[in-house]
Amino acid sequence: MTKLLILNGPNLNRLGKREPDIYGKSSLKDLEEELRSNFAEQLELSFKQSNWEGQLIDWIHEAEEKYEGIVFNPGAFTHYSYALRDAIASISIPVVEVHISNVHAREMFRSESVIAPVCVGQISGFGFDGYKMGLTYFLKRSG
Ligand code: DQA
Q1: Quick check: is 23 catalytic?
Q2: Does 86 carry a binding-site annotation?
Q3: Which of 67, 71, 102, 137 is at a distance of 20 to 30 A from 124, taking alpha carbons?
Q4: Within a 10 A sphere around the Cβ of 33, how many other Cβ atoms?
Q5: Predicted pLDDT at 118
Q6: Strand order in 43-49's β-sheet?
Q7: 101: annotated binding-site residue?
Q8: Residue 143 has pLDDT above 80, yes or no
Q9: 61 carries an active-site annotation
Q10: Which pTM does this prediction carry?
C-alpha cells in the first residue's frame, strides 16, 4: 500500500479554534479522522504537525526513506521559508502543497509561495477537501 505523510506546519494545531470564519470549525484531529475514513483501504497515512521550522525540515528529510509522497500545508512558512523549500528540493519524493483557504484571495503576502516551485502543484481554497485532492493525486499516480 502506498505510504504517505500528511504534514502540517505552524498554527494548524489550532484548527477549529483559530479564525473559524477562514479555516472552519473542525480540528486537526477531525481532519485526520476524515482522511483516514476516506482513504484507509487504499493508502497508509501518517500525520505530523509542528510549529517549528527545523522539525518540519527534519521530517521532510526522513520522509524520503519512509514514504512515497507528502501532502504538505506549510502554513505561513509557505510565504518565506527558503529553508523548507530547499528541504523539499533535496528529496526525490513528490510533495503536494495544500492550503485550506484561498491564499490568492487574501492579503498580498499570502499570494506568493516560495514552496510551490519545488512541489508537484498547489491546491488552495477548498478547505479540508484540498487534502483529499492531494491524496487522490497520489492514488492515481500509484495506479
Ligand atoms: C494556510 C494559509 C497561510 O497563509 C496561513 O499562514 C496558514 C494557513 C491555509 O491552510 O490556508 O497558516 O496555509
Answers
A1: yes
A2: yes
A3: 67
A4: 12
A5: 98
A6: 43-49, 2-8, 69-73, 95-99, 121-124
A7: yes
A8: no
A9: no
A10: 0.97
* The predicted structure's pLDDT at residue 142: 84
Q: Are 81 and 47 in contact (CB under 8 A)?
A: no
State the distance from the centre of ligand 1 to the C-alpha of 99, rounded, in angstroms.
Answer: 6
Q: What is the CA radius of gyration of the chain?
A: 14
User: What pLDDT shows up at residue 129?
Assistant: 98
| Architecture of the domain delimited by 2-142 | 3-Layer(aba) Sandwich (3.40)
Q: Indicate the domain borders of the chain.
A: 2-142
From the list 61, 67, 82, 99, the catalytic residue is 99
Q: Give CA angle at 6 (99, 112), nearest 5°.
A: 30
C-beta of residue 15 within 8 angstroms of C-beta of residue 32: no
Q: What is the rounded distance in angstroms from the CA atom of residue 89 to the CA atom of residue 39? A: 27
CA of 143 to the centre of ligand 1 (A): 31
Distance 6 CA to ligand 1 centre (A): 15
How far is the CA of 82 from the CAs of 27, 50, 70, 114, in angstroms? Answer: 28, 17, 18, 7
CA dist 44 and 41 (Å) reads 8
